[in-house]
Amino acid sequence: MCKRSLAAVMILSLALAVQLQAQPSAVWRHGIITDEFIYTQAPYPECHAATIAQTRHGLVAAWFGGTKERNPDVCIWVSRAVNGKWTEAINVANGIQNDSLRYPCWNPILYQVPNGDLLLFYKIGPKPATWKGYVKTSKDGGITWSAQTAMADGVIGPVKNKPVRLSNGNLLSPSGTEIDGAKIHFELSSDKGKSWKILPPLNDGKTVKALQPAILLHKDGKVQMLCRTQNRAIYEAWSSDNGNTWTAPKPSALPNNNSGIDAVTLKDGRQLLVYNHVLPPGKETKGARTPLNVAVSNDGITWYAALILEDSPISQYSYPSVIQTTDGLVHIVYTWRRERIKHVVIDPSKLVLEEIKNGEWPKVDGYTPPVVQGDTKDL
Predict the structure, then answer these.
(1) Helices (H) and strands (E) in the chain — how many of each?
(2) Helix locations, the chain, DSSP H
(3) Is the pLDDT of residue 375 over 80?
(4) Residues 134, 190: Cα–Cα separation, whole Å
(5) Cross-strand pairs, 198
(6) Residue 69: exposure state from Cβ atoms within 10 A (0-12, 13-18, ≥19)
(7) Over the stretch 214-259, which tens digit does the pLDDT of each residue have?
(8) Is residue 379 scored above 70 in pLDDT?
C-alpha cells in the first residue's frame, strides 16, 4: 500500500474513532427519534441555557449567546421549527442600558400559556446576585415579540426551568436568588403570568446551597421539586397545597455536579428527568458536565436509567430543558460544548429502563463509561 493510501486510511480510521467516541453506545439510545443541532454556525462563539416550548404555530427554542457567559454582548436568541427545520436565530433581547452601559443577558425560559401568549422570561445584569428579571410576550408563536417589561420589584421570575400550571389553574414559577447564599423559592400567578406572589425560600442558602428548581406533578395532588445543589446531590422537596408550603429540601438518591437539571411530568403519570449523572470526586461540589442522562420514575423517588444523550470525555453537555408535546413525544434541548444547541426527540413508550441503585448508573454489557477530561470552571 502506498504511503498516500496508508495515510488516508489512518485519517479515516481516526475520524471514525472520534465519531464513535462522541456517540453513546446504542445500549442507552432506545427511543431516540431525532438527534440534531438547532444550528451549526452563529455570529457568536458561545451559547448556553437553552429552553423550548410548543405553541400553536410549532416549536420555539431560545438560548443566550455571545463572546462568553457574563460578557456584556451576550443576548437572547430565538429559533422556530418550520416545516421540520429550525429557522436562523434572531436576536430578541439585549442588555443595553444606555449609550455607555451594557449588561449581559442570562437564562431565557419559554412558557406557552394555555390559550394565551408565549412568554419569554430572562435576566439582565452583571451577575446572578444582582440581575433583574424581564419578560416579553408573543402572540404568534415567537415570530414577533412585545417590548421588554421588567418584572415587579422583588419578583425574579423562573431562573432556569419553566413554570408549571397547577390543578387549580395557578402558574407555579421555580425561582431563587444568589444574594446571600443559594436559595430557592417559588412565585405564584393566578392571572396567567401577569402578576406574581413571592413565596418564602425553602432553604438557608448556606447549609443547603440549592439552585434552579424543576417542578413535577403527581397523581395524588402533591407537587415535587427537584433542584441543582452545591451539596453533591439533586435535592427534593414536596408540597401538598399547590406549592404554597414545602417540606425541607433533602438529598434524593441521585448525584449532582452543581449543574442545571430539568424534569417533566409525562401524560402517563411518570416523571422524566434530564441531568448529568455525575458525582464529583472526593468532597468537591463541582464535577465535569458529561455524561448527560435521562432517568424515569413512577413515584419521583425510585429512578430508572433510560438514556445517555452524550458521553464524550469532552465536557459541557449541560443545562437541559424538556417538554412533552401534544403528540406524546418528549423534546429536549441542551448546551453542546458551549458551541451549539442540541435538540433531541424521544418516544417515551420506547424507553428501556434499568433501576438506578445506590445512586450508581447501571452497568450493562456493551457499554463502558468514558474517562472524563472536562473541566468544571463554568457556571
Answers:
(1) 1, 28
(2) 3-22
(3) no
(4) 19
(5) 187
(6) middle
(7) 999 999 999 999 999 999 999 999 999 999 999 999 999 999 999 9
(8) no
Angle 340-341-345 (CA atoms, 0-180°, nearest 5)?
140
Confidence band (pLDDT; 50, 70, 90) for 15? very low
Q: Give mean pLDDT, residues 175-188.
A: 97
Q: 28-62: string of b/e by CB count within 10 Å (b at 16+)?
A: beebbeeeeebbeebebebbbbbbbbbbeeebbbb
What is the rounded distance in angstroms from the CA atom of residue 199 to the CA atom of residue 181?
17
In this model, does residue 112 exceed pLDDT 50? yes
Query: Which of 199-203, 297-301, 337-341, 370-374 bottoms out in mean pLDDT, i.e. has the lowest?
Result: 370-374
On whether the CB atoms of residues 202 and 238 are closer than 8 A, the answer is no
Residues sharing a CB contact under 8 Å with residue 343, sequence separation 6 or more, in sequence order: 34, 35, 36, 37, 38, 52, 61, 86, 331, 332, 333
Q: pLDDT digit string (tens) for 77-88? A: 999 999 999 999
Question: pTM of the full predicted structure?
Answer: 0.93
Please state whether the peptide bond connecting residue 201 to the residue before it is cis, i.e. omega within 30 degrees of 0: no
Pairwise CA distance, residues 39 & 287, whole Å: 27
What does the DSSP assignment read for 260-287?
Answer: --EEEE-TTS-EEEEE-----STT-S--
With beta carbons less than 8 A apart as the criterion, state whether 107 and 47 touch. no
Give 345's strand partners: 34, 331
At CB < 8 A and 24+ separation, what contacts does 230-237 make? Answer: 230/182, 230/258, 230/285, 230/286, 231/256, 231/285, 232/256, 232/279, 232/280, 232/283, 232/284, 232/285, 234/261, 234/275, 235/208, 235/210, 236/300, 237/202
- In three-state secondary structure terms, 85 is strand
Report the sign of the C-alpha dihedral through residues 196, 198, 203, 206, in that order: positive
Phi-psi region of 258 (alpha: psi -120 to 50; beta: other; left: phi over 0): left
Residues 211 and 229: beta-carbon distance below 8 Å: yes
Which pLDDT score, from 0 to 100, does residue 370 have?
A: 76
- For residue range 26-64, what is the model confidence (pLDDT) as tens digits? 889 999 999 999 999 999 999 999 999 999 999 999 999
